[in-house]
Amino acid sequence: MNSLPHVIILLGAPGSGKGTQAALIQERLHLPHISTGDILRNQIKQKTDLGKQAKECIDQGHLVPDPLILDMVFKRLSEPDCAKGYILDGVPRTIPQAEALDTFFTSSPLIINFSLPKELILERLSLRISCSQCGQPYHRLYSPPKQPEVCDRCQGPLIQRPDDSQEVILKRLEIYSLQTEPLLKFYSERHRFYTIDCSQKNKEQIYTELVSFF
Ligand code: ADP
Predict the structure, then answer these.
(1) Which atom of ligand 1 is nearest to the CA of 128?
(2) Residue 40 CA: which ligand 1 atom is closest?
(3) How much of the chain, in percent, has pLDDT values that exceed 90?
(4) Sheet strands (E) in the chain
(5) Among 35, 62, 73, 109, who pairs with 7 as Cys (CB 3.0-4.6 Å)?
(6) Closest residue (by CA) to atom 19 of ligand 1?
(7) 18, 41, 55, 124: which one is catalytic?
(8) How far is CA 13 from the centre of its chain?
(9) Backbone phi, psi, residue 77, to 5°
(10) Half-sphere exposure of 179 (CA within 13 A, CB side)
């Protein structure tokens, strides 16, 4: 095994399982899980200026503009709990975000890309429910919570995210292909980069493969 990574970037289309795996490796590595989606949803809940701007983009399946994301992420990564490293989930999503983060990192990141065909993504997202408090995702059929509609981790109420409607999912997938997929080439040319084929694997199998890269 190599020395444990300090900065891990989870890449992959919406619904590919980044959030589920991030929660698992967070416990193993004792590193904070930085989910830009969760931070933005919190800002929306608190009705901050950033939250108001983000809501318009998120509801339509668009990306939140890079300068807003970068400002928010750099603030979060400067907090003391990130001093020893972090797990990035949902960022970067564009080449300018990746370039800005590369100049910020003090150690080379490990990148894991979750690959899943579009049909499976659609099936997953339409049956996805998430905790409205901590963001933990569940699937109504494949990974249901122990108690119906209640989060196993924090007992918060589970909801279907408004951007998990069929129309918005299709928009998010289109934007993923255009803006985020180019990151696969960007990272494979620069850093340690691995792809996990997530079709036909359950979350334990994906986790086992993921930790084999550490
Ligand atoms: P998913 O992985 O299911 O797409 P997220 O919770 O990561 O969902 O993100 C939800 C939404 O928040 C995205 O569709 C996008 O509008 C916005 N968002 C999150 N992270 C970023 C980012 N790094 N850059 C731009 N927009 C973002």
Answers:
(1) 3
(2) 12
(3) 90
(4) 7-12, 33-35, 86-89, 110-115, 128-131, 137-139, 158-159, 192-197
(5) 109
(6) 37
(7) 18
(8) 9
(9) -75, -15
(10) 21
